[in-house]
Amino acid sequence: MTHVVTEACIKCKYTDCVEVCPVDCFHEGPNFLVIDPEECIDCTLCVEECPVFAIFAEDDVPAGQEKFLAINAELAPLWPVIACKIPAPPDAAKWDGVPDKLPQLER
């Protein structure tokens, strides 16, 4: 099983989760993080670290967020690995909790 980063991460991109990942399965895009499903070992450490509650086990992805399974798998091979915490975007708090952010995803 793998974990999945969902819509809540878009434009928030807090990186608390990457710091605790023992296998460096997070990849960083311009305004979103993804988890490489081939690398994730289902340790669950990242779930509690995400301040916007954007990470779920693949079997627990909320209704309407299932498309993020494919998005994570598609973008992980294209984006670089991130293993250290970096500052969140300056306007991250403004985007926390905003619904329907998928059109804002920068690939």
Description of the molecule:
The relative contact order is 0.32. The protein is built from four helices and four strands. The chain has one domain: Alpha-Beta Plaits (2-Layer Sandwich), CATH 3.30.70. The mean pLDDT is 97. The protein has 107 residues and is α+β, with helices and mostly antiparallel strands. The radius of gyration is 12 Å and the shape is globular. The strands form two sheets. The protein has a two-stranded antiparallel sheet. It has helices at residues 16-20, 45-49, 67-75, 92-95, and strands at residues 3-5, 26-28, 33-35, 55-57.
Characterize this entry briefly.
The protein is an alpha+beta fold and 107 residues long. It is built from four helices and four strands. Strand 2 and strand 3 form a beta hairpin.
Provide key terms for this protein:
single chain, 107 residues, alpha+beta, Alpha-Beta Plaits, two-stranded antiparallel sheet, two-stranded antiparallel ribbon, 4 helices, 4 strands
**Overall domain count:** 1
Please report which band the strand proportion falls in: under 5%, 5-15%, 15-25%, 25-35%, 35-45% or over 45%.
5-15%
Oligomer: single chain
Which shape, going by the Cα principal axes? globular
- Give start-end ranges of low-pLDDT stretches: none
Strand order of the largest sheet: 1-4
- CATH architect. name: 2-Layer Sandwich
Give the SSE order as H and E letters.
Answer: EHEEHEHH
